[in-house]
């Protein structure tokens, strides 16, 4: 087991190197660079910048140097000093921008993920064990609705209803009074009162899809002979269902739990924009639009690290839960 | 229910309501089993033999309905349980399953839980039906594995089904079914999925354990050879009907029902004359949605009597030595 983990960890090093190089190259692939985008923005407001000034800015940011040199400087800074470079757009260190938001992003995403599972698994199990019952049909309809309605639309409707009927302050994670206040118990309560909207919005779509998968997995498992064996041993229905087929049916979930980690950072950008959430999604979107390459590169690097850790985690979990994988 | 019988099935009728119509899967099946007796149930696929066995466990598929009949089981303490009157999930039924009636299945590959070790699965049955301590359960489980002749029982307890061969899995399955000393063992084609050598070993094992523990066995199979080897009595099923039930010798040497005779003639024999084509039963098994009127076998029967067989359902005729057959040939 320890050997297996060490082996996997060692392999993640070359994977990371390749990913960072690839992302750095891909970000620079579109024609132009940050300065082009910057100038275009200025032109819109009526200012004109001559070629000399542009070249000067490029030189200042190091954009005129060859790509491999830029890459080495950037990656060297990260490895040696933990310095992710400067966001060209924000004129702020990248790490300052990213870490601020990652905490809240993790909080929202973890809560939604938990919520998704809490909703989807029991309903999926119920739907499968009582296939074609009234509630199964009801959950099926709700599931397809939840899957079909875009998250951002649900977010808009919730915001509108909250504003109209309950006089909530909607959007964002804090009331204006607490936005820049230091952390306190009151601020925490304020956070909770805002948090349920994004968590609800983000978990419905996921839960709707997941419950269909859970139902399908369970239906397949319930038809297998070992379920009948379990009944023939004298177990009650509840014991049979939760001890045997649910455990097997959960395997596909466990193998994808690792993907949840990167999805936490990059996912649901639209919802985050609509709800004005101070999470990482909108920031990443903007950095890509502006070719703010160090910020975008920093994000993608963290995403890849999360992906690798996540996949490793789910592989380890699978080995722990499924003896068939453990021994092969 | 007679005093000496342990299980009695009377006039059992089971049907499935389907979109295409009603399927009468079991039509008036009767048989009984005495303690220590081995009853073989023979029949082709879809003849209702597995379904009849499932009714003993009260584990019929959810879309199946029992329209008539009773299944009664006598526990060792003398209490008689009317199984079909019990709820599927009742305490009595759960005590019966695994405790008084053990069951082994056709597919040793898939009939054991893939995510629990063999030991864990046997101990689950033990913890449901006995008061043994954890330590005693482990010992009992190891003893059981030794009883079914598995090598290194203590190590085997930790193994998972996918680490064992088909024969070994079936042995584990048998150990699990016998863990609480059931007085009746239901074996639903336990050797069908095994190769011939393993089949012989498993049959030997079941027979020696049956002898040792003096339990009754209902052995479902489509293989007459297996029946000849192990059964005391045989019930032949066709399209949901038990067409003939008799002691094993009477079935082979004095069959009363044309279907039994036809089946016996279509068994290949090593000592038979060569260059003769094997006899087959004429025609096809009828569509289950449109069962024939009268005797269900009349469409394929070589001894059909026009008029009578096509319109009247034959009554059960009793012969000496407890032989029974449903055929107009034997009715006055």
Automatic annotation (TrEMBL), chain A:
InterPro entries: BPD_transp_1_N, MetI-like, MetI-like_sf. Keywords: Cell membrane, Membrane, Transmembrane, Transmembrane helix, Transport. The chain crosses the membrane at residues 9-29, 102-123, 152-175, 195-214, 253-275, 295-320. Belongs to the binding-protein-dependent transport system permease family. Residues 102-318 form the ABC transmembrane type-1 domain. It is found in: Cell membrane. This is Peptide/nickel transport system permease protein. CDD domains: TM_PBP2.
Automatic annotation (TrEMBL), chain B:
It is found in: Cell inner membrane. CDD domains: ABC_NikE_OppD_transporters. SMART domains: AAA. InterPro entries: AAA+_ATPase, ABC_Ni/Peptide_Import, ABC_transporter-like_ATP-bd, ABC_transporter-like_CS, Oligopep_ABC_C, P-loop_NTPase. Transmembrane segments: none annotated. Residues 9-264 form the ABC transporter domain. Keywords: ATP-binding, Cell inner membrane, Cell membrane, Membrane, Nucleotide-binding, Translocase, Transport. GO terms for molecular function: ATP binding. The keyword Thylakoid does not apply. It is a peripheral membrane protein. Belongs to the ABC transporter superfamily. This is Peptide/nickel transport system ATP-binding protein. It comes from Pseudovibrio ascidiaceicola. The lineage of its organism: Bacteria, Pseudomonadati, Pseudomonadota, Alphaproteobacteria, Hyphomicrobiales.
């Amino acid at each position: 087991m320890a050997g297996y983990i060490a082996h996997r960890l060692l392999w993640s090093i070359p994977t990371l190197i390749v990913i960072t190089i690839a992302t750095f190259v891909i970000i620079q692939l579109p024609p132009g660079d940050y300065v082009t985008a910057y100038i275009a923005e200025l032109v819109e407001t009526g200012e004109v910048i001559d070629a000399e000034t542009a070249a000067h800015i490029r030189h200042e940011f190091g954009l005129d140097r060859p790509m491999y040199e830029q890459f080495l400087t950037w990656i060297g800074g990260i490895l040696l000093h933990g310095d992710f470079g400067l966001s060209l757009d924000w004129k702020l260190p990248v790490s300052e921008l990213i870490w601020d938001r990652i905490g809240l992003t993790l909080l929202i995403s973890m809560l939604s993920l938990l919520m998704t599972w809490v909703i989807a698994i029991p309903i999926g199990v119920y739907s499968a064990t009582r296939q074609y019952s009234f509630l199964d049909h009801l959950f099926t309809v709700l599931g397809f609705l939840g899957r079909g309605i875009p998250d951002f639309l649900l977010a808009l409707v919730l915001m509108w209803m909250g504003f109209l009927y309950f006089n909530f302050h909607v959007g964002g994670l804090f009331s204006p009074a607490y936005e820049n206040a230091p952390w306190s118990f009151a601020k925490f309560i304020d956070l909770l009162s805002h948090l349920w909207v994004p968590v609800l919005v983000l978990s419905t779509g996921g839960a709707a899809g997941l419950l269909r998968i859970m139902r399908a997995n369970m239906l397949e498992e319930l038809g297998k002979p070992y379920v009948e064996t379990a009944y023939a041993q004298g177990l009650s229905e509840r014991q049979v269902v939760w001890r045997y087929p649910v455990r097997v049916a959960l395997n596909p979930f466990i193998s994808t739990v690792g993907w949840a980690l990167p999805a936490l950072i990059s996912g649901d950008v639209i919802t985050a924009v609509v709800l004005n959430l101070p999470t990482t999604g909108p920031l990443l979107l903007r950095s890509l639009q502006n070719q703010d390459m160090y910020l975008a590169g920093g994000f993608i690097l963290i995403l890849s690290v999360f992906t690798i850790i996540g996949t490793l985690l789910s592989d380890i979990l699978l080995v722990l839960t499924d003896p068939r994988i453990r021994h092969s | 229910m007679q005093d000496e019988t342990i299980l009695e099935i009377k006039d059992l009728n089971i049907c499935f309501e389907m979109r295409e119509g009603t399927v009468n899967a079991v039509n008036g099946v009767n048989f009984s089993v005495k303690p220590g007796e081995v009853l073989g149930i023979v029949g082709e696929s879809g003849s209702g033999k597995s379904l009849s066995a499932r009714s003993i466990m009260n584990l019929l598929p959810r879309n199946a309905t029992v329209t008539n009949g009773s299944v009664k089981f006598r526990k060792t303490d003398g209490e008689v349980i009317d199984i079909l009157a019990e709820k599927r999930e009742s305490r009595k039924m759960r005590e019966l399953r695994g405790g008084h009636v053990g069951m082994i299945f056709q597919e040793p590959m898939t009939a054991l839980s893939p995510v629990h070790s063999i030991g864990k699965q046997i101990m689950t049955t033990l913890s449901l039906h006995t008061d043994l301590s954890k330590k005693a359960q482990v010992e009992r489980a190891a003893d059981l594995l030794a009883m079914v002749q598995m090598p290194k029982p203590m190590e085997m307890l930790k193994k998972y089904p996918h680490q064992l061969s088909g024969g070994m899995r079936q042995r584990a399955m048998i150990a699990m079914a016998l863990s609480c000393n059931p007085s009746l063992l239901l074996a639903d084609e336990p050797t069908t999925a095994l190769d011939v050598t393993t089949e012989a070993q498993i049959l030997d094992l079941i027979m020696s354990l049956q002898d040792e523990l003096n339990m009754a066995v209902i052995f479902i199979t489509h293989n007459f050879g297996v029946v000849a080897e192990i059964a005391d009595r045989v019930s032949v099923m066709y399209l949901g009907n038990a067409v003939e039930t008799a002691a094993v010798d009477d079935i082979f040497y004095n069959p009363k029902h044309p279907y039994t005779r036809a089946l016996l003639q279509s068994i290949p024999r090593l000592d038979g004359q060569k260059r003769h084509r094997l006899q087959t039963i004429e025609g096809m098994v009828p569509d289950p949605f449109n069962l024939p009127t009268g005797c269900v076998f009349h469409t394929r029967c070589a001894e059909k009597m026009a008029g009578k067989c096509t319109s009247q359902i034959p009554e059960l005729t009793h012969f000496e030595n407890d032989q029974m057959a449903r055929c107009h040939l034997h009715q006055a």
